[in-house]
Design a protein that fits this description.
4 copies of one chain form a homotetramer. Chain A starts with 12 loop residues before the first helix and ends with a helix. By secondary structure, chain A is α/β, with parallel strands linked by helices. In chain A, helix 8 links the parallel strand 5 and strand 6. In chain A, strands 1-7-6-5-4-2-3 form a 7-stranded mixed beta sheet, sandwiched between helices. Chain A contains 13 helices and 10 strands. Chains A and B meet through helix 1, helix 3, helix 5 and helix 9 of A and helix 1, helix 3, helix 5 and helix 9 of B.
Chain lengths: 353, 353, 353, 353
C-alpha cells in the first residue's frame, strides 16, 4: 500500500514500448530529431493552438527554465507558500532565473486568490528597493490536491496582467487537473491567461517526461539557449520525444489521470466515513489530505500503509492537536486497486476499534 | 554511413533491457532507490576505490555541477580551448559555478601541456583583479580524439596541485580512453591526481547515462544540494541507476569502446593511404580528424557519408588551404561495420580518380 | 522637520575634513593604501580583537558580500521579515550569494527569537529539496528601532551554532545600538557569537562609510576576491579609509549616536503623552514607530513634518484601524534640536485639539 | 615620479569643493536628489542628446551593470583581450550579467578591428551550443593607450549592428580620448553607434565619479532595479551628483585630460630619442608603453620612477628579448610637471651611458 507519491510507480507499458520502438537506426541529436518535433506538434494539437514545446528531464528544471523566461534577475515571482518551486526545489528557481525572488503566498484552502495577490503587490511600495513583480506561478492541480478552475485562473490572470506580469502553471500533475475538471486543456491554460507551463508526465506514467510549453510563443525566443545553458539539452533527445508522443497518444495521459483521481476519491470517501478522521481540504484530484489521530496513524503504518506526514502550516493556527498528525496520500493510475481496497478496509476496521 | 557523432546511435540492447527489468513494482524516488546505490557501489568497484557517484541526465550538467564543487564564483577553470565545457555548453558552466571564468588554453596536438598551464598561471599577476585559479579540467579522450596517458595526467596534476587547484576530467568518452590505453580506470583518474570526473556513458550505449564521480569524497559534501539545485535530481531515479549497472556489468562499456576505437583505426588507416588526405592528429580513440580536398569531400557527401566539418583553429596558422576542408569522423560500437567498409572502399575509389 | 531617514542629512564636518586632509600627494590604490590599513587596525582596537575589515561603498553591498562568505548558493539565510536584506535590497543578497534563499521570519516586538528560528528550522525536513540552513542575519539596532542585547544575541547564537550555521549582524545603525545599550562593541558582536558584520557609518555622519568586518577571520579568506568581483573595490580607496578613521576617532561615532538616540527618546516621550497616539514598539535607539489618527497625521504633514508611513504587518492582525496610520520617525545626530522641539510642541498642540 | 596609474593621484580641488558645497541641509536620498538629476541633465548637454545617466561608485560596477543591460545570461560579450572587463575585474562582469561569457579578442596595435570580430563571429556555428553574440565592448581610450576614432567606431558598429548586437564603451579614460581626438563627445559615442557607456571620471579628478550613460534610452528600462540589485545605489547620492557636476562644469574634465595627454606626449618623445628604447604602440592619449633594457629599467626604478611592467602578450611572438621588459607609464593632469621633466632628463642621461 504505497501512497507516498505517484513517482514511486514505474513507466507505463505504452511509454516504455515507445522508447523501445524508437531504438532503431540513427537519429539527429540535441533536439533536432523527428520525435521531438512531432511531440511539439502533438502538444499543439492537444492545446488547440500552436505552441513551442521544449523537452527537459525534470519538473524542477522545467519550472526554473520556464520562470527564467518570465522574470528578470531583479524580479519577483509569486507562488503559493507550499508550491514546489517555492519550497521543494532547493534554490533551483533562483539559479535558473539568476537570483529572482520567489515569494510564497498563503492560500485559502490551498489555492491562491486574487485578493492575496493584490494585498501582496500593495506592499511593493519601495520602488527599486523592492524586486519588480514579474510573474505569478500556480500549480494545477496544486500541491494540496486542489484544482484551479478556468474561472479561478481567469480571475488571477486579470490581476497579474493588469500589472504586466506573466503567468505560469506548474503542471506536474496537470493531467489530474484536466481530468478532474473535465475540460479541454486549453481551458485551464492559454484561454484563461496562462503564458507558459511546465507540462509534466513523469508522475503519470513517464520515465523522464517533462516539457516547457509556451502559449505566448514570443516568450520562447532564445529558449533553445536557455535549455542548453540549463544543462537540459539531451543528446539522445528522440527518447524524450517518443515518451511524450506515447503519453499523449489516444489520451493515455487523461485515462491514467482519471484512474488516479478515481482512486483518490474512493480513498477520501472511506476516510470521511470515520469520525476519528478529518479531511481539511476537498479531494479535487489525486491527492488526499487528512488529519488522523496518531494512534490510528501508527496502526496504519504497522499494517503496511506508506504515506508522508505533511507540514500543517496550511491549516492555520490550531490546525491539529498534539495527538494528531496531518498526512498526505497520493494515488497513481498504477496504484493496485487491491491496495486501495485493502486500505479502505483497514480504515473501517481501525476506526471502529 | 553516419559518422557525425556517437550520439546519433541508440541505446545498447542490454541497457534498454535493464530499464525494462527495473520497471516493476514501487521504488524509492529522488535518488534514494536501490539501483542508484548499487550503481555507486559498482563505480567504486570499477575504480578500485570508494567513490561518491551522483547520477545526472546530461554531460553538460555533469560538467557544470562537478566544476561547481571545485571553483568558487570568483575562480577560474582552465580547459582546452576546444573543450566541451569551454565552447559547446553555451554558458552552462558559468551558470552552475555562479559565474566562474572558463579559460580555454591552446593545446599541443590537441592536448594541454604543463608548460601551457604554467605560462597561463604566470599571467595571473593582478591579485584579486584576476580570478582565483581554482581548477583544471581535461577531457579524456579529448575533443580532438587524443588520449591523455597516466604520465600526461600526473604531469598536469603536479602543476595544478602545486597551486592548490583541483583537477577534473570530462569523461564523455572515458571508455574510449580506457580502452585505447588498455589501463585500469584508476590509472587515468585518481591514481594520477584527478579529484572528480564526469563519467559519461550516453555516447557509448546509454540513453541518459551520466554521473559525477568524486574520488576526493570530501569534495562531495553538499553535492546532493548541488544536484537538486541544478535541476538534475530525477524523481524516477531507478532508471538512471539501472542503465549505469547494465553499462558497467561484464565490462560492456569497455567492449563497446574497443569496437568503436577499432572502427576508427580502420577508417584512419584507409584515409592515410590516400595521398590527397592528411591526418593532422593521431587517432588515439574513436574520433578521426582529416584534411580533405573539398572536391573529395563533396563526392563523399554525395555518396552518403555524414560527418561534420570542424574549426581548423587547432591546426594553427596556414593549417588548411582554401580548397581544403577540416573534418571529423566519430565511430561508435553501433556503427555498422559494413558502413566502415563501404567508406573505406569509397576512399580508395575516389582517391585514385 | 525632516524625520524621514538619517540618510537625508549630510557628512559630519570631521569626516569631511578627513577626506580633505587625505587629499594630498599620491597613494596606493585599490585598497592597498595606508588609510585603509589603519582603518582596519582602528576597527580591531574598537572591537578589542584582531579583525579583518573591508571597506565598501554601500550597506547593501556590505550585507550581500558578507552573506556571500557565509552561505553557499544552495543555502538559506534567515532574517527578520522586515530586515533590509530581506525587503529593501531588491535581489541584491541573491546576486552576491549566487542565489541563496533569504527567508524572512516574523519577530516578536520587532525582534527574532530563538523559538521562531527553531520552529523555522524544524520545517526543513525535505533533505536536499530544502536549501541548507547556512546563516542567521540580525540587524542591530533593528529596522523597527529595537536593540538586541548581549543576552538576546547569545541566545540566538546558541540555536544557530548548534546547527553549524553562521551569524551576521547588519550594523547599518550599529552605533545606535552600542550607545543605547551602553556596552562595549565586542559585547554585541563576537563575544556573543557574531561571525561577521556590516559596519555602517553612512547614516551616522559618513559619506560612503561602510565596512564588512570579520570577527571569525578564517571566513575572510578570499574576501578580497569577493569585494573585487562585487564591483566594490574602490580605486581611490584612501578616501574610504580616511572617513572610517575620522568616524571612529575620539568616539565620534558613539557621540553622534547618543545624540540621535536622545532626540528619539525626547520625541517618543512627547508622543506618549498624547492619548490619541500609540507607540506599539519600545524606542530603544533612534527610530520611533507610532500609530496616529490619520487626521492628526495630515495636520503634522501640513505643518511641515516629514516622515514615512510604514507597513503595519509587524503589528499583527487588527494592528491598526481604518482611520489610523502606522509611521516611522528617524532621528539623526544632525537633526536640528529646534526641529525636535517644534515637533514636540506640535504634538502637544494638536493632541489637545 | 609616480607613473603607476592615474588613480594614485587625488581629487581635483574643484570636485572636492563641490562635495563640500553640497554638504548643507537635508536632501532626498537614494538617487532622488537634485544633484543626481542635474548631473543627468548636464550629461545630456555634454552629449548633445537626452541620455539616461546613473551614478555608481566604481568603473567595474559601471561596466558590469551596463553590460547586464545588453546581454542575457546566455549571451557573449566581445572585448579586447586586455580590456578591463576581460582581465581586470575578477569575475565581476560574469556576476552582474548572470554568467555571460566575456570573450577577449586579439587586437591589431591595441585595437579591435572589424575583421577580428567577423572572424570570431564566424566561429559561432554551433547554434545554441554557443552563447548568443550579444554585445561588443570597446575601451576608449584603450588599455593600451590607443584611441578609437569615429571612423573606427562606425566600422565596428556596422559589424555588430548587422548581427543585432549592442555596443558598449568603457570610458574609464573617456576624457583622454575626447581630448586626443579633439572631437565632440557625441562623435565617438552615439553618433558612431555606441548604445551605452561607462563614463568614468575617477581617474581624471574624481573621488568616486562613475556613471552608466544610456544613449539608447530604451535599454535603460529597469536600470534603477539593476543598480539597486548591484549594491550600487548610494544613500547619500547627492555627493556623487555634485562630483559629476563639478567635473563637467566649465570643461574641467577635458582640461584635465589635455594636460595628462600632453604629459604623455612629452614623455613618449623623450623615450623615442633613446636608441635603447622602443615604443611598440603609438601614444594616443595618456598612457605610454615602452620596451626597455632591463638594466635601464633597474636604473630608472633606483632613481625613483614608479611604473608597472606589463604583459607583453600584445606584442606578439618574439615581442621582447630576455634582457628587455615591457612597461606602462600613465600620466595624470595631477602629475607634477617637474616629475615629467626629471624623468625626461633621466632618460637622456641614462641612455647615453
Amino acid at each position: 500500500m504505497n501512497f507516498a507519491s505517484d513517482n514511486v510507480y514505474g513507466i507505463h507499458p505504452k511509454v516504455l514500448a515507445a522508447i523501445d520502438a524508437a531504438n532503431k537506426g540513427t537519429s539527429a541529436s540535441y533536439g533536432y530529431d523527428d520525435y521531438s518535433k512531432r511531440a511539439e506538434d502533438k502538444l499543439s494539437e492537444v492545446f488547440g493552438k500552436e505552441v513551442r514545446a521544449y523537452l527537459v528531464t525534470t519538473g524542477t528544471a522545467a519550472n526554473g527554465l520556464a520562470l527564467s523566461a518570465l522574470t528578470p534577475s531583479y524580479g519577483a515571482v509569486l507562488t503559493h507558500a507550499e508550491a514546489h518551486a517555492c519550497v521543494d526545489e532547493c534554490n533551483s528557481p533562483e539559479m535558473f532565473t539568476g537570483g529572482a525572488k520567489i515569494i510564497g503566498l498563503h492560500g485559502i484552502e490551498g489555492k491562491i486568490t486574487p485578493a492575496v495577490i493584490e494585498k501582496t503587490l500593495k506592499g511593493f511600495i519601495r520602488g527599486e528597493h523592492d524586486p519588480k513583480p514579474a510573474a505569478l506561478s500556480i500549480t494545477n492541480s496544486t500541491e494540496l490536491g486542489r484544482v484551479y478552475t478556468p474561472a479561478d485562473i481567469k480571475a488571477l490572470s486579470a490581476v497579474v496582467k493588469a500589472r504586466k506580469m506573466k503567468f505560469h502553471t506548474d503542471g506536474a500533475r496537470f493531467a489530474n487537473a484536466v481530468a478532474a475538471l473535465d475540460v479541454k486543456p486549453a481551458e485551464i491554460t492559454w484561454k484563461s491567461g496562462i503564458d507558459v507551463m511546465s507540462f509534466g508526465g513523469t508522475k503519470n506514467g513517464g520515465m523522464l517526461l517533462e516539457a516547457v510549453v509556451f502559449f505566448d510563443t514570443d516568450l520562447a525566443e532564445d529558449f533553445l539557449y536557455r535549455r542548453m545553458r540549463g544543462g537540459q539539452l539531451v543528446s539522445k533527445s528522440r527518447y524524450l520525444g517518443a515518451q511524450m508522443l506515447a503519453y499523449l497518444e489516444g489520451n493515455l495521459w487523461l485515462d491514467n489521470a482519471r484512474i488516479a483521481n478515481g482512486h483518490a476519491k474512493r480513498l477520501a470517501e472511506a476516510l470521511k466515513t470515520s469520525n476519528r478522521i478529518r479531511l481539511p481540504l476537498p479531494t479535487d484530484a489525486n491527492e488526499v489530505f487528512a488529519v488522523l489521530p496518531k494512534v490510528l496513524h501508527d496502526k496504519l503504518q504497522a499494517a503496511g500503509a506508506h504515506y508522508y506526514d505533511w507540514m500543517p502550516d496550511t491549516l492555520g493556527p490550531g490546525g491539529i492537536k498534539d495527538d494528531e498528525i496531518f498526512v498526505r496520500f497520493v494515488l497513481s493510475y498504477a496504484t493496485p486497486p487491491k491496495d486501495v481496497e485493502r486500505f479502505v478496509g483497514l480504515i473501517k476496521e481501525l476506526s471502529s476499534t
